[in-house]
Amino acid sequence: xxxxxxxxxxxxxxxxxxxxxxxxxxxxxxxxxxxxxxxxxxxxxxxxxxxxxxxxxxxxxxxxxxxxxxxxxxxxxxxxxxxxxxxxx
Amino acid sequence: xxxxxxxxxxxxxxxxxxxxxxxxxxxxxxxxxxxxxxxxxxxxxxxxxxxxxxxxxxxxxxxxxxxxxxxxxxxxxxxxxxxxxxxxx
Lengths: 89, 89
Prior knowledge:
Largest interface: A-B, 35 and 35 residues
Oligomer: homodimer
Strand order of the largest sheet of chain A: 2-1-3
Shape of chain A: elongated
Helix content of chain A: 25-40%
Number of helices of chain A: 2
CATH architecture of chain A: 2-Layer Sandwich
Largest sheet of chain A: 3 strands, antiparallel
Order of helices and strands of chain A: EHEHE
Mean pLDDT of chain A: 93
Number of domains of chain A: 1
CATH topology of chain A: Mth169, Chain: A
CATH class of chain A: Alpha Beta
Structural class of chain A: alpha+beta
Strand content of chain A: 35-45%
Low-confidence stretches of chain A: none
CATH superfamily of chain A: Phosphoribosylformylglycinamidine synthase subunit PurS
């Protein structure tokens, strides 16, 4: 079965506060980094999955993102899938 | 001063264990998602910064990534910067 690489980006919805991001922004200011207008911390999940085809991989990864990787109440997610060129069966 | 959008991706070095990722992988298996070969959780930081030019933005963001966003002992980071087309001064 072919392998697929996927990247799921999970970010807080804009209406949700990000205290960790705010703390980092204020620490950056103390470090001398000026001009930061926005700093929000999200998750990036790196995945490799074996599936019968692209559609199958997509279905499984969408289920995974919705149910396990993101909290749909406060987070949004985006998914990128690319096939891996493999020489084995 | 021009604005720049930046995205910093922080990921655990491959030699470092990722217990949260392993737990998610095993939960995915119970959910019926088979064929996951890899699942590693990293951070994605969304930034907007005001700087005099691209080089200035890059210098500041590299300092920020090295000192505050990633732990260089166990994490690697990559940086993407793109200018924001703004009509105001």
